[in-house]
Amino acid sequence: MIVVAGEALVDLVIDTAGAVAAKLGGGPYNVARTIGRLGRSVTFLGAISNDRFGSQLFAQLAADGVSADATVRTDLPTTLAAAELNDHGAATYHFYLAGTSAPSLTEVPAAALAPEAVHAGTLGLALEPMASTLVGYLQGLPNDTMVMIDPNCRAGVITDRAAYVRRVDEACRRADVVKVSNDDTEYLAPGVDPLVYARALTAGGVALVLVTCGADGTWVITAAGEQLVPAQRIEVADTIGAGDSFGGGFLTWWLGAGFGRSQLADPALAAQATAAAQAVAGITCRRVGADPPRRAELPDDWHVPRP
User: Residue 183's closest CA among 222, 163, 155?
Assistant: First the structure.
């Protein structure tokens, strides 16, 4: 079982013409849906409201094969995000957080305590009390649990940057895989080259760092070597949920191929997993909102490692 920990919310997607559409989202929520749609056993660790939006969020998890055994329900209203799209389909986010569901997580259900792997990040590392709850959860995991962290920094919601950076550092100290974008590294370590930042993480014990660079591809960074995996050329509807689909695709491919923590430092294997994750993200980018693919939309041999 994979545990995906963090926020579930509703994106109010505003296109360039001003039309608004409500889409289910939240970075970790999207990751969990991706894994579920790809056929891997997964549960979502987060707080979901009992209101109508929350009921939709909860029902969609079930529809996508995601267990709710680690999901906490609350009477607080659903967290909202306004996602304004530019002409290239990239989104700028504005969040409505006070007194809402996602940040309220203070407990970890027993179903999340002994997973095969954990993915955590986005607002899950930014909003209290959820952030402290999840960092404590990560630190208490069994040593053999594979952990993937995606900071997916949202500067607009962070009121204490220094505390946030410390919290991300704490999470990364428990991580086996860290996925960061150029924007993430600029926020976490202003002026530091993203590859230099990634190498510092591997020097500190992270087995694998994935630096996503959009259309320029993804850098695979390990202590044993580095490799740039070129991006696929696609027609982009928007990029909402692309990084989340990438993370879910990576974990699904990696574990489905029978690999674990000990193989993460192999840059050639990591590059194969990265290309597989890019294929998943590419399908998401062709659609409006966070709508990850199902397994049947990928090639039959998508999950098969090359010799």
Answer: 155
Residue 65 to residue 36: CA distance in whole angstroms: 5
Distances (CA, A) of 150 to 96, 132, 245, 283, 294: 21, 16, 12, 20, 22
Q: Which of 298, 234, 306, 299 has the alpha carbon at shortest distance from 273? A: 306
The secondary structure element, H or E, covering residue 134 is: helix 130-139
Place of tokens 């689909």: 245
Beta bridge partners of 9: 25
17's tokens: 């013409």
pLDDT over 70 percentage in the chain: 100
Record the tokens describing residue 141, joined without a space: 């995991």
User: What per-residue confidence (pLDDT) applies to 123?
Assistant: 98
pTM of the full structure: 0.95
Q: Are 125 and 148 in contact (CB under 8 A)?
A: no
Q: What angle do CA 121, 97, 2 make, to 5 degrees?
A: 25
Which residues on adjacent β-strands are paired with residue 72?
47
- At which residue do the structure tokens 């095969």 appear? 116
- Which contiguous run of DSSP H or E holds residue 5? strand 2-5
**Domain 2-292 bears CATH identifier 3.40.1190.20:** yes
**Can you read off the two tokens belonging to residue 76?**
């607080």
Q: Is 279 helix (H, G, I), strand (E, B) or coil?
A: helix
Confidence class of residue 290 from pLDDT cuts 50, 70 and 90? confident
**Domain residue ranges in the chain:** 2-292
| 14 in Cβ contact with 80 (< 8 Å) | no
Please give the torsion angle defined by the CA atoms of residues 262, 265, 269 and 274, in that order, rounded to the nearest 10 degrees. 110
pLDDT at 119: 99
